[in-house]
């Protein structure tokens, strides 16, 4: 097996807490679902390896199967870092040469970005990191082999990952990819999603919920 791609996803019920009270609980759940579908669509079209959705939510498992992805179960929601580590161990056990992880809330990611990232030349052991638009978070990590280093998420994970890679004797590479760099956490991110992801399910959902007008009423801080 050449590559395993891990997409950690928490349960839909408690998704996107930072969008409270801008979106209702059901709207936040619908947005989380739409974003996961956008990500899985891009991965299916990129065809870069086995896709594993790491989750304990039966609804997410069913959604992953509908998009041709496999699932990797968790007993509890231990967090993003632990979910990725679980997937790294699984990738290694399955004989994968490379391991890529991306989040489920980057709806503007494109198949071209994913293919370009997955094809990045590396001298094993090696690592590639894609920062969030803010430059603080890590929106993708590509490792060869899958256990080249431990990954730890949560801002400022991008700088921390670069430092950890160098401490492990690696020469980390950086790829800045605008679609993959946009993760949706706060109302201001919705503005960028509507501007940049017009063809995505996620932007279509926001339009159907009248979010553009709601953002306009919210004012400049959005």
Task: Give a description of the structure.
The protein is an alpha/beta fold and 222 residues long. It has a single domain, classed as Spore Coat Polysaccharide Biosynthesis Protein SpsA, Chain A (Alpha-Beta Complex). Helix content is 42%, strand content 16%. The protein has helices at residues 25-46, 58-66, 80-93, 111-118, 157-167, 178-181, 187-196, 201-208, 211-218; strands spanning 3-8, 50-55, 70-73, 98-101, 126-131, 138-144, 173-174. It has a seven-stranded mixed beta sheet with strand order 3-2-1-4-6-5-7, sandwiched between helices. β1 (3-8), α1 (25-46) and β2 (50-55) form a beta-alpha-beta unit. α1 (25-46) packs across α4 and α1 (25-46) packs antiparallel against α8 (201-208). The radius of gyration is 17 Å and the shape is globular.
Features:
globular; alpha/beta; 16% strand; Spore Coat Polysaccharide Biosynthesis Protein SpsA, Chain A; single chain; 7-stranded mixed β-sheet; 222 residues
Spell out the blueprint of helices and strands.
Layout: E1 3-8, H1 25-46, E2 50-55, H2 58-66, E3 70-73, H3 80-93, E4 98-101, H4 111-118, E5 126-131, E6 138-144, H5 157-167, E7 173-174, H6 178-181, H7 187-196, H8 201-208, H9 211-218
Parallel strand pairs: 1-2, 1-4, 2-3, 5-7
Antiparallel strand pairs: 4-6, 5-6
Helix pairs in contact: 1-4, 1-8
